[in-house]
Amino acid sequence: DSGVTQTPKHLITATGQRVTLRCSPRSGDLSVYWYQQSLDQGLQFLIQYYNGEERAKGNILERFSAQQFPDLHSELNLSSLELGDSALYFCASSGGLESYGYTFGSGTRLTVV
Amino acid sequence: AQKVTQAQTEISVVEKEDVTLDCVYETRDTTYYLFWYKQPPSGELVFLIRRNSFDEQNEISGRYSWNFQKSTSSFNFTITASQVVDSAVYFCALSLSTNAGKSTFGDGTTLTVKP
């Protein structure tokens, strides 16, 4: 157990729907990162939050949004889902603003049908 | 922009063989960080090592060793006396000091160690 908790582990939903992925960082970590892993794109950085504020943004689609709450857990919202959004979504955490090495959660496998 | 290239898509070895996974990176920044992660068949990503650009000392941790060479922009990973449990996808990643939270990952090398 890495200490980073992601729920749900699996999610199957239809095109056009909206889903929310949840992540609780390792105790004491202030930064949360979201990554998407797909066969064609590999591991892609989506967004970073640090202590509730957005700190860095990657190639995150406008249909996707995220936030980090006062208790430091984070949610990634994916809307108007398309077949191509099917992927493994990882959350990672680190202590500060920069990564000394992420601690990853076990991921949420999203399947859009 | 930064880029990480892992040219070896798949490597297959027999147990107890040594194997080196290559990683070549591109960046114009002078301060950056390099990482290796392991993704076993179970799917989770596990941090292995972090190196900053000012530290070219090679590192050894048990059967694992890393060779960082700025002159060739490479950060290679060697597993000595490989074991079946080393079978996994290995990712090399790069972060810049200007945006140190974000890592750019290579496409990964799938290592299969056969008994």
Mind sketching the topology for me?
The complex is a heterodimer of chains A (113) and B (115).
Chain A (H helix, E strand, L loop, with lengths): L4 E3 L2 E4 L5 E6 L6 E8 L3 E9 L2 E5 L6 E5 L5 E5 L8 E8 L8 E2 L3 E5 L1
Parallel strand pairs in A: 2-11
Antiparallel strand pairs in A: 1-3, 3-8, 4-5, 4-9, 5-6, 7-8, 9-10, 9-11
Chain B lengths: L2 E3 L4 E5 L4 E3 L2 E3 L5 E8 L6 E7 L6 E3 L2 E6 L4 E6 L8 E9 L2 E7 L3 E6 L1
Parallel strand pairs in B: 2-12
Antiparallel strand pairs in B: 1-4, 3-9, 5-6, 5-10, 7-8, 8-9, 10-11, 10-12
Note the run of SSEs of chain A as H and E.
EEEEEEEEEEE
Distance between the termini of chain A: 30 Å
Helix content estimate of chain B: under 10%
Number of helices of chain A: 0
For the residues shown, what is the average pLDDT of chain A?
Answer: 93
Distance between the termini of chain B: 41 Å
| Spatial extent as radius of gyration of chain A | 13 Å
Main structural class of chain B: mainly beta
Q: Describe the sheet with the most strands of chain B.
A: 6 strands, mixed
Please trace the helix and strand order of chain B, writing H or E for each element.
EEEEEEEEEEEE
Q: What does this protein structure show overall?
A:
The complex is a heterodimer of chains A (113) and B (115). Chain A is built from no helices and eleven strands. Chain A has 113 residues and is mostly beta strands. In chain A, strands 2, 4, 5, 6, 9, 10 and 11 form a seven-stranded mixed sheet that branches. In chain A, strands 1-3-8-7 form a four-stranded antiparallel sheet, with no helix packed on it. In chain A, strand 9 (87-94) and strand 10 (103-104) form a beta hairpin. With 115 residues, chain B is mostly beta strands. In chain B, 0% of the residues lie in helices and 57% in strands. Chain B has strands at residues 3-5, 10-14, 19-21, 24-26, 32-39, 46-52, 59-61, 64-69, 74-79, 88-96, 99-105, 109-114. Chain B is globular. The model of chain B has no long low-confidence stretch (mean pLDDT 93). Chains A and B meet through strand 5, strand 9 and strand 10 of A and strand 5, strand 6, strand 10 and strand 11 of B.
